[in-house]
User: What shape does this take?
Amino acid sequence: MDLLEVMRTTFACREFKNEKIEDEVIHRILDNARFAPSGGNRQGAHIIVVKDPEKKRKLGQLCESVLLLYAAQQKAGEVPYNTIKPSSISLQEIETKTGHDFEMFNKLDEVPLLLIVSVDLSEVASMDKDLNRIGIVTGASVYPLVWNILMAARNEGLGGVITTAVVPEEESVRELLDLPEDHAIAAMIPLGKPVQQLSRLNRRAVEEFTTVDSYKGDVFKI
Ligand SMILES: Cc1cc2nc3c(=O)[nH]c(=O)nc-3n(C[C@H](O)[C@H](O)[C@H](O)COP(=O)(O)O)c2cc1C
Assistant: This one.
């Protein structure tokens, strides 16, 4: 596929046809995705191809309370799991404030392919580690790989979605998948043949988020 078409049409796919993905295809996706950069080229990422339906089901289950809290915060007009604005949602409220679409996570054992991408924190230079804010640079040593996987999958006619709902339950995942102590989960990626391929993604225009010389500078436009 044309690179620009892949870049512009790799959407968040959460509904898959019931078609198996052969190991050769999985390998080809990862073989293309592995050229992603990482800080110092240290390549501390690890991928677990979760084939066991029982493990997939458990991973979906682990997301349940996280999704409930996320949905409740969203419903209350908050930015879910935000580090700047604290949440006002109590655990009691979560049980009543439901409504999120749990379809994919409830049937995670049925997704054709499930990948867990983690990164070895003992291999990453986290350049913002001493700043008085949440770290962002650490993720940059693994998310290029995560996104390359999605784009390589798109090139194979497949679709998927970056999910992070399992991350708050990282300790349970560590036990379930024997994840080493220093590994942090970056994403859980369900993949498969999309039921429907979207082609027009809802994104802000360049002019809406680009300025010249300063944040308050002129809008960058041609
Ligand atoms: C860091 C990150 C975390 C995400 N976590 C989840 C998640 O836990 N569950 C989910 O269904 N989608 C998740 N998504 C998918 C986003 O909702 C999706 O990429 C976004 O809404 C754009 O969708 P579109 O490409 O179909 O327009 C995540 C995406 C990113 C980049």
